[in-house]
Amino acid sequence: MLQRSIGGGAAIHKAFRPSHPDVTAAARGAPRAAPNAGAALDAAAAGRPLFAQTERAGAPPGREETRTAMTDLAASLDVSLLHGCWELVSWTRTDAAGALSYPFSESARGRIIYHPSGLMSAFLMNPSWATEPDAPGHRFLSYSGRYVLKGDVVEHAVDLASDPKFVGIILRRRVAPEGGLVVLETLAAVGRTEREGSHRLVWRPAD
User: What is the rounded distance in angstroms from the CA atom of residue 198 to the CA atom of residue 4?
Assistant: First the structure.
């Protein structure tokens, strides 16, 4: 299990060190067992394809085999991966047509905290908020509530928010570890229709 203090990110990298026997066997060119969660995580963290080899030498992975490995990877995420305080690296929005934008500017700032007790809080800000608080436009967002990780999706049950429309809903974010970073991608809130476009927020461990 990953045990990481709020201030450190090195433990994340250590937790995903590629030491699983299946991955080691694949690196030596030996046949490996069917994909499992450990092998998928180790291969992903090391930047290697999930299927360096198949049981039939030289054969490409089948669609079902790939789907199984990705399902195992999602199911194997541990909630302790999220624990701690994270600083925003980038926030982008991709609309239904594929156009990219920056909701709170390219210099957006943010912080998200996941406490082991099951409580979380998030803050997002356009830097202009600090210097031009009376300027028009939506430039600050914060919310808090309880969270739970289901597979590779974290749910935020919001009970406090700067925007009243967030209160009482369950926000959903797909979790994707990338080295020492964590990427959260927005999904439709529980009970809501699928979103047109999505947001991608990249977080690093807070200093």
Answer: 29
Closest C-alpha to 76, from 163, 152, 176: 152
> What letter would DSSP give residue 165?
G
User: What is the mean pLDDT of the segment spanning 47-63?
Assistant: 40
Q: Which two tokens stand for residue 146?
A: 């309880």
All structural domains of the chain, each given as residue ranges with its CATH number in brackets, are 10-75 (no CATH), 79-205 (2.40.128.280)
**Angle of CA points 116, 203, 13, to nearest 5°:** 75
Q: Beta 109-114 vs 140-150: how paired, if at all?
A: unpaired
Report how far residue 40's alpha carbon sits from residue 52's, in angstroms, rounded to the nearest whole number.
Answer: 11
The structure tokens listed for 114 are 């996941």
What predicted TM-score, i.e. pTM, was given to this entire model?
0.64
CA distance linking residue 17 with residue 179, whole number of Å: 10
Chain-centre distance of CA 4, in angstroms? 16
Please report the pLDDT score of residue 54 as a whole number. Answer: 31
Q: What band does 80 get if pLDDT is binned at 50, 70 and 90? A: very high
Q: Which residues contact 190 (CB under 8 A, 6 or more apart)?
A: 155, 169, 170, 172
The H or E element containing residue 98 is none
